[in-house]
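Our collaborator T.R. sent over the components below with a one-line note: 'Predict the complex.' Nothing else. No constraints on interfaces, no templates requested, no preferences about which chain binds where. So this is a plain run: every listed entity goes in together, and whatever single assembly comes back becomes the starting point for the next discussion.
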Amino acid sequence: MEASVLIFGLVNSATLMLVALGFSLIFGLSGVANLAHGGIYLFSGYVTWMLMNYLGVPFLLAVPLTIIIAGVLGALIYWVALKRVRGLHLSEVIATFAVGVAILELFRWMGFVTYEFTLPVFIKGSVDIAGVSIDYQRLLIIGIGLLLAFALWVFSRYTKMGLALRGMAQDEYTALSIGIDSDWAAALSMALGSAIAAIAAISILPLGIISINMGYEVLIMALAVSVVGGLESITGLVVASIILGFAKTITGTYFDPKWMEVIYLFALVLVLAIKPSGLFGKFKELEERV
Amino acid sequence: MLEVKNMTVFFENALALNNLSLEIKAGEFVGIFGSNSAGKTTLMNNISGLLLHRKFREKAKGGERITIDGKLYFDGEDISPTIPQDRVKRGIVLCRERHPVFRDNTVHENLLLGGYLRSKKEVNESLDFVYDLFPALTRLRDRKSGLMSGGEQEMLAIGTALMAKPKLLLMDEPLLGLSPLMMQEVVQAVKKLSKTGLTILLTEQYARPIMPLIDRGYVIENGTMIVSGTGDELMDNPEVKAAYFGM
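Returned assembly:
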């Protein structure tokens, strides 16, 4: 395998992981398939841009502000659009999809459709690895992706709050009977997932121009990774990101780049047809007692 | 400690509790006996606040199927409008029927979750107590609870409820679906718990092993209280004998 395939495969894998982490976290912790994920991702990109360009906020301050704003938006989406339909899965999907489309189309309506919307990179410059030139921002994406995945794994297993959120996702009434507030837990998981979507946006969007269609693409990427890996599984998420990230890179390098985006949809359909629970959903099914 | 006053509950037009009143004093072990659909679980869910939560949830979705009328007093305060979390903070903790556990979590994680509203010091104290009460759980500490037997899950469910440091422990049919051996183990644990002075309200269909342990008991049918008395009185009652002991 060429060094460039290996390196860009890793970058694409980390990008996918970052994009899907927020979506997977919300589903794993509150059981909500948040189809507003793409909208929140792009919202975060535009908010960072607006903070910097309309209010003159420095980039390094705009970043934490955006993450907080995205978190608040996630919690608000729960309280306004999801609280009433909690537990009605189809209604949850419709509500979040509508919110996501509304966010994206609102930006289109506001005129965010030209090529001036870009975000700065964290570190300028590039480095040569095995003869392949790669910019620092892409390396940073790998680092942030791995760090966030590890942090979430630790959070969901070793913190009181993480355990409470997992408990709520498994059995709401039992969680309530020991004092965990279900609405608070669901709102918190939406806030966390949205904040992670913002981190992903701020890390990945500097690689290109911010465009509305990216919101829809991000949603497809997040869905593909989560479904292929098996919803609720962080291990599955990491493995699916690697598989799809390398599949995309290999397709772009050895076949035709036009097929690169189709890979996600193909994988999604394939997994749903052959093994709907995803690569790592199997274990959960086997472990369940009847 | 707890007073249930004129409690009536309807699920749409089906009557689940009919003007039911009862009282539990601190340190008492009270049993509620009744057959299927007598209203035992409705009563427990009502005291724990789960029923009110469900009512609010359904109302938010645009339907109102549940009607709750009557009052609940805990330590003299009206807790009827309070949410489950508030009731747990006050010390009312329910161990639901059919051994509810967080199946993806280990035994230890389940117990830690039980102490969600308590301080680290309280959690550590309670952990020792629960592992002491159910030694089997020590051995299963790192086992995923979804992989355990029904009896082990019931022990864990009771242990998880105990981690919340209840003043009033509500146990909804803890013997449901257990093997005779596991049943004995759970009954022994309940006996030990009642001896610690913990106030217990327990519902059960299978009255035989529980009735000798209780201070007082009530028998309900179709949501209506039909007999009440001490454990001995209930065991001597011909109706109870016929219905629960086959005599």
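Summary for T.R.: The CA atoms of residues 74 and 115 of chain A lie 27 Å apart.
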